[in-house]
TrEMBL record:
Protein name: Mechanosensitive ion channel
Residues that span the membrane, as ranges: 6-27, 47-69, 75-93
Source lineage: Bacteria, Pseudomonadati, Bacteroidota, Flavobacteriia, Flavobacteriales
Keywords: Membrane, Transmembrane, Transmembrane helix
Species: Cellulophaga baltica
Organism superkingdom: Bacteria
UniProt key word Transmembrane: yes
Length: 238
């Protein structure tokens, strides 16, 4: 019996494309359902972050599989054809692959202030072949090849908040407290909060980073509103 996924025929290549196409939309459906079904916001964000990385890799891997399937139909003719296309389109291919790498790189993200050559501004969005940087003179497009050859500098901001520590005492479990924190947009979850139990005092040590423009007093007020005791030093919550 002929295997419909054998790739030495056009039918096999067609079936592979259909399989990858429906696989992509199956992942999109999973993403949609996770956004609509609330387990906990903390769990949802972690799962969506994983799915986002899968989507970043899914397209280039799918394209590579399709090209390999195309080559297996006729190794010589199709191989030479793709070699010619690759030589002509090399700058675009390099840009695209560079884009995938930079999107996975957690240092570069929307809202981050960067300097590339003589251009300084905040990253507005990522495109398939470059990024858009919002500068004082307006939006500026910079391709990934330029970033790769010239390098970039992530600028420190005057309002950057360092990792902070707060001691809390609450009848809530660690998991329940983390879920409560995830329900409020005070913390920066690129540097996720960490809770550690302190046996000597019965308190919890909370290490966190606040979102841009948020003051520590706002977090303390939020916790106090939920009957959670807070202190900057452990010995005050004995």
């Amino acid at each position: 019996m002929e295997n419909t996924f054998i790739l030495y025929s056009w039918i096999g290549l067609r079936n592979l494309i259909l399989f990858l196409f429906f696989g992509y939309w199956a992942l999109k459906l999973i993403e949609f359902l996770i956004q609509r079904i609330t387990l906990t916001k903390r769990v949802n964000k972690k799962v969506l972050a994983v799915l986002n990385k899968i989507f970043l890799l899914y397209n280039p891997i799918s394209i590579l599989l399709i090209l390999l399937g195309f080559i297996t139909i006729n190794y010589i003719v199709h191989g030479l054809f793709l070699l010619l296309v690759s030589a002509i389109g090399y700058p675009y291919i390099r840009n695209y692959v560079g884009g995938v790498i930079y999107k996975i790189n957690s240092i570069l993200a929307k809202g981050v202030s960067v300097t590339i050559n003589d251009t300084t501004g905040e990253i507005k969005k990522f495109l398939p072949f470059g990024i858009v940087v919002n500068t004082e003179k307006g939006d500026c497009f910079i391709n990934y090849t330029t970033i790769d050859t010239s390098g970039y500098t992530v600028n420190s901001k005057n309002d950057t908040v360092l990792r902070q520590t707060l001691f809390v005492k609450t009848p809530l479990s660690k998991s329940e407290l983390l879920d409560l924190l995830f329900d409020n947009p005070l913390l920066n979850y690129k540097e996720a909060p960490v809770l550690k139990e302190l046996e000597e005092s019965g308190a919890l040590k909370l290490q966190y980073t606040l979102e841009k423009g948020i003051q520590a007093e706002s977090l303390i007020a939020f916790l106090s509103a939920h009957q959670i005791e807070t202190s900057l030093t452990n010995n005050l919550i004995a």
